[in-house]
Amino acid sequence: MGSPDVRIPTATLRGVEAVPVTVEVSVSGGIPGLSIVGMPDTSVLEARSRVRCAMKSCGYKIPRLHVTVNLAPAEIRKTGTAFDLPIAVAVLAATGQIPHEGLSKLLFVGELALDGSVCPPRGAVAYAALAEREGLSLACSENTRLPLALSTGAYGISSISRLKAGVGELPLLTTGHDLDEADSGDSCELDFRDVVDQDIPKRAMVIAAAGRHGMLMVGPPGSGKTMLARRMPTILPPLTDAERSEAMLIHSVAGQPIGPLERGERPFRAPHHSISVGGLVGGGRPVMPGEVSLAHGGVLFLDELPEFATNALQSLRQPLEDHEVRIVRVDGVYVFPCDFQLVAAANPCPCGHLGDDAHECTCPPARVAAYQGRIGGPLMDRIDVVVDVHRPASTDVIRGSEGAGSSEMLEQVLAAREFSSWREARDEARYGSGVRGVARLGFEPSARAFFEDSAERLALGGRAIARVGRVARTIADMGGHELVSRDDVGEALQYRSRRQL
Fold it and tell me: Which element (helix H / strand E) includes 425?
């Protein structure tokens, strides 16, 4: 067999990135048919039937020849249905049914329906980013959703019948960056003002948001833990450009809508406690990002924390430390970013009424200990802020009282982060890299002595000491203190030396 008759640029998804692939087609005599080689998976092999039906529906001739399609490089496994469109284009060009001009300048991706219409691919943002890096223009479905920055120069194809006149007649993609009503959530309606008689948990949430600390709320059913958690994104700053790009890339690869991310809203993920390890941290075949990666730049809320499988909870330890998930497979290592804000909620016991003055706990001590122990010490050691949430006063709820609102709490978070950035820049210029660890946080002498005595008395480990110090530093930043005071350390220890769990 001689050199291929035509080459069409396309790509395959690997993790959260698109890898360049070239579709090579050679037409020869022999038994008519369509062969696809180059390590395709089942979904790619099924493209043979979709391509034939689409070509027939659009009035093209099915070649009475043997057509060999090679997906190069052949050593990379090809997955997904986005190869339908480039394979169809390559076959049509090789058989002379569409013009060749301009095909090599476009990156074709898309799934074909049996009537020849082109459907949007999963991971369109990754494909568009690759096309931009390779100096190509993206050619995909006209219904593909792309960010405004990446939709410039992309072309929309409604059906492969539009290719009869050549790619020079394709329209520019103009609908990819419009905000769909379907993507409009109700997160803008959530406000902490609706949460009454919970001043201590609210302050704990401001501390957690200001210092990016993991947080656990413990309280009886109906105390408002979930209500508080769902409002955490309202006190976080809008996504930066870098965070937005990474989050949109992850959501696009996972087939999730990107409209709220385009508006700068931080993601909020709340998986059910029956989730598997693969669903939480990623995995499967093809390898897909998990909930921790979908929460990148936003909030991961784990309600009923002790009800999660133990192996699923312990799989969070490495992502919490490294802010990335590394999944090792035979064909290589997949890396997914996962810099998220952890917010968890738990009942103090199976019945939920341990420590509740209004209800009596019916759980035996052994069952309570087993229930609380399901979270595991290593994971608890990585949660910086633990706060008890009590039932709100009935009169405040019935009268519709209002508490501190999200706008007021957001101002506190922004002020604390701004002060922290100024302080870190000053310390970097003053100390350089000579001072590290807890010592660099800046303690008053009395605060340092109190911290040392408390750490010894509470038998805090090295990680716990570092995390209490970071929480104390965040509390000091909220108050505009250049040095951490004894009161700041005392409040930080209250969130660590918890009464329950």
Answer: helix 406-431
